[in-house]
Amino acid sequence: MTKRPTLITLIALFLASFAFAAPAQAERIKDMGQFQGLRANQLTGYGIVVGLAGTGDDSLDYSTLGMKGAVSRFGLTLPAGVNPALKNAAAVMITAELPPFAKPGQRLDVTVSAIGKAKSLRGGTLVLAPLYGADGQIYAMVQGNLVIGGLGVDAADGSKLTVNVPSSGRIAGGATVERAVDTGFATTDQLTFNLHQFDATNAQRVADAINQALPGSAVMIDGASIAIRASGGGDERMRLMSRIENLAVIRSEPPAKVIVNARTGTVVINGAVRVGTAAVSQGKLTVSIKESPTVVQPAPFSRGETAVEQSSEIGVDQEYRPMMMVKSTASLSQLVDAINRMGVPPGDLVAILEALSQAGALTAELVII
Fold first, then answer.
1. How far is residue 50's CA from residue 75's CA, in Å, rounded to a whole number?
2. Is the model's pLDDT at 150 over the cut of 50?
3. pLDDT over threshold 90, residue 188
4. pLDDT at residue 132 in the model
5. Mean pLDDT of 129-151
6. So what's the pLDDT on residue 151?
7. Distant-in-sequence, close-in-space partners of 279: CB < 8 Å, separation ≥ 6
């Protein structure tokens, strides 16, 4: 009987087609890492969204305090002891990313999320609010109308309908940069390029490629960082970075890894995995219990009571599967063929891979997430 290929088999075959169908391709250095210091900075802020259709926070203390602070900037002071019910306003947290080299006047997209009891921010407008960096300084100011991708509706009988998340939205270009971040890019005597992943071989190849184009300019700091001698002003340095980023490097083969998601049973095997000779036996034990209760009637005129007589049948079915020899494989495709011949479900496959790793027959790091 022909068995349908499992999801694991299809994924592995898909990866194998890329790992073995074509030779190694050169990659640009810019795809392997990034220059140190040229990163985004996270900004956060607190604000008030107004103009809601009765879906606001409704008299939360911090919402009231926030609204009092917002209106006080316009000379309006609420009397002492007055606690308005803010059904049309909501307290929100604002988040954004400040890209490298962002200059005052540039616009940023922001995400606005309710932090209180607000059911929906649809139709709301964010009142002018500052965005702070990790150093406590103001780097941007934000204001604007929210775009909400969710929808929430409440009926009079208590029934509700919610689509996506109506309590969170975005303002495209809603923030204006007020302060630039000093990266020290134009003042340091060297540039540092950091790989996305630690790999001494890749670090060496990147340094060699840079030195081939710019003799004597690159030195490996460690397996993830390369120092590059730099001089001149910003224009010269940017031209140097552009030239380095577009250099081609053949990436080394990644470490052999088997990634197992214990919750979903998903298994991903990369092309560097090898399996030594091993014998695998995998069986299946099924215990079935069948309940067949019988109703027993008393004899006529006996004044007895109807009773239920229990009847149970217990069966044990143990499927016999002969031990299979897994030969030493040289490629991912051969490993997939061996796994497919065993015809095991994902849960049993995880157990087999763990056992092969403990037996020393799996030349790979087994990562269970």
1. 18
2. yes
3. no
4. 94
5. 89
6. 64
7. 323, 324, 325, 326
Is the pTM for the entire model greater than 0.70? no
What would the 3-class secondary structure string for 80-111 be?
A: CCCCCCCCCEEEEEEEEEECCCCCCCCEEEEE
Write b or e for each residue in 64-87: b if 16 or more Cβ atoms lie within 10 A of its Cβ, otherwise e.
bebbbebeeeeeeeeeeeeeeebe
Domain assignment present for residue 302? The answer is no
Number of domains in the chain: 3
- 102 and 12 share one domain: no
**Same domain flag for 133 and 235:** no
Task: Kindly state whether residues 264 and 195 are assigned to the same domain.
Answer: no
In whole angstroms, give the CA distance from residue 131 to residue 176: 10
Tokens 């022909």 identify what position? 2
Closest among 253, 260, 272, 263 to 8, alpha carbons compared: 260
Domain span including residue 229: 184-250
The Cα 103–Cα 176 span in angstroms is 10
CB 229 within 8 A of CB 213: no
Asked if pLDDT for residue 355 goes beyond 90, the answer is no
Average pLDDT over residues 159-180: 84
* CA 213 to centroid of chain Cα atoms: 37
Q: What is the mean pLDDT of residues 233-246?
A: 85
**HEC sequence for 7-40:** HHHHHHHHHHHHHHHCCCCEEEHHHCEEECCCCC
Distances (CA, A) of 40 to 29, 35, 144, 157, 176: 20, 12, 23, 48, 16
User: Are 72 and 15 members of one domain?
Assistant: no
Same domain, 154 and 191: no
Short-list 3, 22, 7, 5, CA closest to 271: 22
Look at residue 276 and give its three-state secondary structure.
Answer: coil
Boundary residue ending a domain (177, 192, 210): 177
pLDDT of residue 21: 42
Token duo for residue 254? 């990644």
Q: Could you tell me which residues are beta bridge partners of residue 90?
A: 49
Question: Minimal CA–CA distance to 269: which of 279, 277, 260?
Answer: 260
